[in-house]
Amino acid sequence: MVHKVTLIPGDGIGPEITEAARRVIDASGVKISWETVEAGAAVIAQHGTPLPDYVLESIRRNKVALKGPITTPVGKGFRSVNVTLRQELDLYANLRPARTLPGINSRYQGIDLIVVRENTEDLYAGVEHRVGRDAAESIKIITREASERIARFAFDLAQKQGRRKVTAVHKANIMKLSDGLFLDSVRSVAEIYSGITYEEMIVDAMCMKLVQEPEQYDVLVLPNLYGDIVSDLCAGLVGGLGVAPGANIGLECAVFEAVHGSAPQLAGLNQANPLAIILSGVMMLRHLGEYTAAGRIEEAVTKVLQEGQYVTPDLGGTATTGGMAEAIIDKL
């Protein structure tokens, strides 16, 4: 079977690392027809937007995309391409695994948890306005429909992967209506999954507990803003964003991406670490039902990291982006 996949190289180091991931995935033996479409800063001059319609059309047509990092202006200009993609395609579930990898510098061991983040509402809905000259308001939107939907996703994931516990993360002690509605929605779903332990944690306490004893946690389900922050915290526990894969999943489409930035200072130097997007590609292959190829790539990555010889400078080695990809391909 040939899978049709949209490939979005992105900005900065994006083209280098997506090419590395494409080579590794192709070497696994899976048959993929890649449709490359450009998005980001490079297309603004021609199309007036970093996210032209043809990008969305390609993803809707192919149903699956692998995406490199895209630069988002801070405080002005266009809204985040990532947020727009999630809202336009209703990619309601953001999936961020955090797992200890061999050879990666971290003070923690034995971590294997997944952050499940609601992806379409909360403060990221972007409903905000100025109040006079010296104030601004941003509206936090929480609905029962979206909250129950992300809760079902989290419990279904835990059930399929044989995981033991789901923790709902909130601030309902302060935001009693919005976060209270999120919590009430998750509780109603938790009652259906009697075989999975369910607990709740206030978000600030959750951050402390993750630093103290992260091995105690399994699946975390959170509203959008908390999920964004806590998922980066979890990435830090296992070595940083350079080893953190991610997926945005909806009923119709799924976009898999490295969650780190575009690192324009490294663009063109062939030094960027491709691991995050390669592991995102592994998640994509499992989504496509290509479990054998996904497992083979994971094994090859593990061997390269264990040997530590052909890894990029941020991982303590001297390999180039292409050189690390080639080492993984050799193990395949």
UniProtKB/TrEMBL annotation:
EC number(s) recorded for this UniProt protein: 1.1.1.41
Keywords: Oxidoreductase
Pfam family membership, one: Iso_dh
Start and end residues of each Isopropylmalate dehydrogenase-like domain: 4-328
Gene Ontology molecular-function annotations: isocitrate dehydrogenase (NAD+) activity; magnesium ion binding; NAD binding
The protein's name in its UniProt record: Isocitrate dehydrogenase (NAD(+))
Gene3D superfamilies per UniProt: Isopropylmalate Dehydrogenase
GO biological process: isocitrate metabolic process; tricarboxylic acid cycle
PANTHER family the UniProt entry points to: DECARBOXYLATING DEHYDROGENASES-ISOCITRATE, ISOPROPYLMALATE, TARTRATE, ISOCITRATE DEHYDROGENASE [NAD] SUBUNIT ALPHA, MITOCHONDRIAL
Family: Belongs to the isocitrate and isopropylmalate dehydrogenases family.
